[in-house]
Write a structure and sequence with these properties.
The structure is a single chain. The chain is of the alpha+beta class. It contains nine helices and 22 strands. It has helices at about 45-60, 120-130, 135-140, 145-170, 215-220, 285-295, 325-330, 345-350, 365-375, and strands at about 70-75, 75-80, 80-85, 85, 90, 100-105, 110, 135, 180-185, 200-205, 210, 230-235, 240-245, 245-250, 255, 260-265, 270, 305, 310, 315-320, 335-340, 355-360. Strands 9, 10, 11, 12, 13 and 16 form a six-stranded antiparallel β-sheet that branches. The protein has a five-stranded mixed β-sheet with strand order 2-6-18-21-22, sandwiched between helices. Strands 7-1-8 form a three-stranded antiparallel β-sheet. Strand 14 (about 245-250) and strand 15 form a beta hairpin. The longest helix is centred in the middle third of the chain and has 29 residues, at about 145-170.
């Protein structure tokens, strides 16, 4: 089975080209480089070198596109705290328990030159800052025709990720969430092509009922790629069967090669009171907040943790954009620890700001284990991006 991020039909591939546009929040500035006064007896030499350096920088700026974007650390939001006096995460339909510490969602701020022209100093400062980037606007926002589509997709991803976060949290705590598993798309390379079609509702795997997304995932997990499976499904209300070989997802896991659009029957209602964030990258931290609030134990014991990562209904943590800026934003807002998707480790290594401990996670279970270990004061067994 192949499920796109947040278990929705795949978005246009162009949307993935925005490297760090996970949040739509006010613009900020990165740290300024230090400047020192040169000794007097070397003044002539330093002036000459400085003049050459300035010429090079001006030359570089002269070939940059006229419209560009500056990205930097955005504000963070404590998923266990309040936002404007109201709980940022509210759970109805189940008992919830107070939690100490912080679980902060991190964001990226993006300012665009076409809306507010930048000064030469701000461009130079952010060009060299480890906590910022300078890119052509089109690389971040797409073409004018694509921009509205990207914004709509970001808002849809944000809404869908909240549902995925709730499902993943409940199932990680042992509560199965029933779902209607509707086929959204059959991949061209899938052996189900020509057998299953959009609108079919999957109800069985090899004669065993699958009434939830996790049940389908578990049924496939026991099979090696290439094995035949018989899928029972409903088409126009009539039960039918299709037998075909599974595919390999690239990691040795059997998949059907289809996209699903699950309709979940959540036993609780989770409300997120924040309207300045878009995209799916807050999913992991919302899942952790839900797990923390639904359990009596105090996992964090006062620790301040930030992080990022998409979350699937199956509890898989996915890579995001802008992690370098998000680590700096977390540190600025008082976090001591940061949870990073394992698939972002290549961007994490060499870019961790001093004073922040970063742990890599691949699943929601990994992340929950991490915050529990952090709260207990023993992180020796946790995984980092360097081992």
């Amino acid at each position: 089975m192949t499920v796109p991020p947040d278990n929705a039909p795949p978005a246009a591939t162009a949307a993935a080209t925005a490297p760090a546009h996970d949040a739509d929040v006010p613009a900020g500035e990165g740290p300024r480089p230090d400047h020192t006064e040169p000794p007097g007896d070397r003044r002539s030499l330093v002036l000459a070198v400085s003049g050459l350096g300035a010429s090079v920088m001006v030359a570089v700026l002269s070939i940059l596109p006229a419209a560009f974007a500056i990205g930097g650390p955005g504000p963070t939001f404590d998923t266990l705290g309040d936002n404007g006096g109201a709980p940022l995460v509210q759970i109805d339909g189940a008992p919830s328990y107070p939690a100490s510490g912080e679980l902060r969602v991190t964001t990226v701020t993006v300012a665009r030159g076409s809306s507010a022209p930048f000064t030469l100093g701000s461009v130079l400062r952010d060009w060299i800052s480890p906590a910022a980037y300078v890119l052509p606007e089109e690389d971040v926002f797409g073409t004018p025709d694509q921009e509205e589509q990207f914004e709509e997709q970001a808002q849809q991803d944000w809404i869908t990720s909240q549902e995925s976060a709730s499902v993943a949290a409940l199932e990680a705590l042992g509560t199965e969430v029933p779902a209607t598993l509707t086929v959204a798309l059959v991949g061209e390379t899938s052996n189900a092509d020509g057998l299953l079609e959009a609108g079919d509702v999957i109800i069985e795997v090899d004669g065993e009922a699958v009434a939830s997304f996790s049940a389908l995932t578990e049924a496939l997990a026991t099979r090696p790629p290439g094995d035949d499976v018989t899928i029972g499904y409903l088409r126009d209300g009539e039960r039918q069967e299709a037998t075909f070989a599974t595919l390999d997802d690239g990691s040795g896991t059997a998949i059907l090669g289809i996209w699903l659009d699950p309709a979940f029957e959540l036993p609780i209602e989770v409300t997120v009171d924040i309207d300045s964030v878009g995209g799916p990258s807050a999913g992991l931290m919302f899942s952790l907040a839900i797990m923390d609030m639904l359990t009596e134990i105090d996992e964090l014991d006062g620790a301040h943790v930030a992080g990022t990562g998409t979350i699937s209904a199956a509890g898989d943590v996915g890579a995001i954009g802008g992690i370098r800026m998000k680590m700096y934003g977390a540190l600025d807002d008082g976090a001591d620890y940061f949870l990073a998707p394992i698939d972002n480790c290549d961007e994490v290594v060499g870019n961790i700001p001093a004073g922040l401990d970063v742990f890599s996670v691949e699943t929601l279970d990994d992340a929950y284990e991490a915050i529990t270990a952090i709260g207990a004061g023993d992180t020796s067994a946790l995984t980092t991006c360097t081992g």
